Amino acid sequence: MKRTLLLTILGVLLSHGTRAQLAQNPDKFLGNITTSYQIDYGTEKFYQLWNQITPENESKWDQIEGWSRGSFSWTNCDRIYNYAKTHKFPFKFHTLVWGSQYPKWMDNLSKEQQLKALTEWMDAVKKRYPDLKLIDVVNEAIPGHAPAPYKDALGGDGVTGYDWIIKAFEMAYERWPNAILIYNDYNTFQWNTDQFIDLVTKLRDAGAPIDAYGCQSHDLTDCSLTTFKNSMTKIQNALKMPMYITEYDIASADDNYQLQRYKEQIPVMWEASYCAGVTLWGYIYGETWVTDGTSGLIRNGQDRPAMTWLREYMQTDKALQAKSPFPGMVKEASVYVKPAALRVPTGKPTSIEVRAKMLTKTIDHIDFYVNNILQQTLTEAPYMVEYTPANKAKYNLKAVVHTTDGSKYERLASFTAYEDYGSKVFTDLAQLTSGQPFTIVSGEQGKAFYCSDNQNLGFANYATAFSNSVVGYYFKLESLAHSTDVSVRNYYLLRLLKVDGTAYTIWGSPGYLNTQPAAQDCSFILGLNNQNGQDFKNGAVWDIQYVEGHGFSLRNVGTGLYLHDNGPAKYEDPVYFTFCTVDAATGLHDVSLPKAQPSVVSTAVFTLQGMKVGTMEQWSTLPSGLYVVGGKKILKK
User: Fold this and answer.
1) Sign of CA dihedral 254, 255, 258, 260
2) Bigger pLDDT: 302 vs 445
3) 440 with 496: CB under 8 angstroms?
4) pTM of the shown model
């Protein structure tokens, strides 16, 4: 009866030209953005349609402090913030840290000054808006999107690959502990789903105070329902965190196409219990960010079919009764699980901190689980756990906060345990043939080999190689003593290991270090084809010799020439490498990495194609051109 009466009243209101706010669910919002720097636009007021607002541009850093450092222009942002307060719905600050629309004077500052400017920026926002409830802390940081050019000021990639983002969230949490802190990005349902999951997982597992992830959803215009649902489920299953749809739009001038997408997608996202709200990215046709503004829902003052449907859907029982991870649109619990490191050695205790704080309720106790087995019940802050991983594996962590009123709040994290190989420097290949993992470093150059990406061999300074290696920087020596090819029985293969110590495979096949002169590089090939390598026979076979006082040389059996770096093995004279164990998780200070030491100086002169044309003694007789001597390019005029 009540339901019928509600619809009757709604029908009367509509018939008289008065529109009710679309979303009536008290626990999640249907929001929108400003339109061409205006809030109310068209015949209906913003607050008559939407119950959350995000400034499209007005709260971005360059709009507030873009002209001159220390000179802030708050007028436009104030207007939106105060409008939301007047109408008692959420205002979202968009955004604190982003690689686009930041003050360009930042580019001319030192890292120290950039950090100072970022701190001043956040302090200024805190002073102006001390009670923010929703914040896009970092926006579009997936590699290839718009990571902040000034990220090194926040710590750079670091050990996690995203240390700078973690720092930004910590800074935001210090200032707004009760706000819902969000990481926001695009192409999350198509094209960059896995990268998005990896990034947010790293933030969560490192204990960053991130409360929700934001999926912009611009990629849904041409996304099938199956792909959308599968991706949304995949993200949630991996992260187990609240989700916001932050910038939804369907860019199409075709009314029926736009209607179809809205009818397919909106119920899926809105009715998901982990969805805390949906923000549309514009609603006035011709005034949205897409070409010709075709994502707009109101054209020439008239509802497009998708808008008509949206008004009706939001009054259905399913829409009105949809659950939210933030009842009342506020964050009651701040719970973050922070292991000492994302990678820890086996057999050694590691500390884990559970940061837990309630807004209005009282914590009774916290149950802490490892791999779904209860380890400890914590009753007093600080909530600390010590755990010793026994085996190389991923360990899933879970904290369940119980409050005195019977409520429960969960937070997940994880770390990976690796075998602690100790700090060793090897001088005999016999020490390695049992499968002992080792790293190949150059003391003379202060660099180490690692797998960078796309199966490629990287060669960079120690910190970069050990902290940025997505795949690994350990190798395993495989003897060919029992090969059916007698010509290679005195030689070896170098197989890459992943960071967890397991063997690296490419599409199910082993990955071996292989020189490729035609491609002008070295890489990890899939399979060996009887040790043929990719370019030629025995391209992955290495003659490895130790020279006292220098180290190991790597002569490729296929080319008959030596490896100097991550380019092809093409040099007549060797350089020497140290084989040792080292791990970024234990800290480089624990390892006596080799310092610069002289290697045999090469006097051979090569063309850029690797062909020897003489020695330095014959330099004066060589024609003008660019040559390679001792691994370095030299121009002869």
Assistant:
1) negative
2) 302
3) no
4) 0.75
